[in-house]
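Example 3.2
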Amino acid sequence: MRRLALIVAAGLALAGQARAVTPDEQLADPKLEARARAISQELRCVVCQNQSIDDSAAPLAHDLRVILRERLAAGDSDRQAKDYLVRRYGDFVLLRPPFQPDTWALWLGPLVVLLLGGGAVALYMRGRGKADPALTPADEAELARLMAGRDGGD
């Protein structure tokens, strides 16, 4: 049983190292392949959305990896190859899109949500911290009558 647990643990540890790049996609030139791998870690799979194209097994990610390698093999610089994919798919294909007006919501959205949530919690806590209002003389008399009735009813 212990051996099986070790095998499963080792398998899970190695699973994070797996990549979706297939041998038929890889370039023969190791330097070009290294460049392709580095760039593909910066590009988002538009199907999976939170995976790089290097990590995704989606067919579209495969197509993007092939296009990227074709561009590099044709002599494009890293910047030119990445810009080509951005022109085709927009800034969304970048895992770290540039900070510009059309991506402000993406960059600032989490901060705005955090601030709104913090403000809501602060308002809630401020409202909770207020002391109960004092009883009016009529309320005190009613409370005394109810308490007297309760004590006498037992």
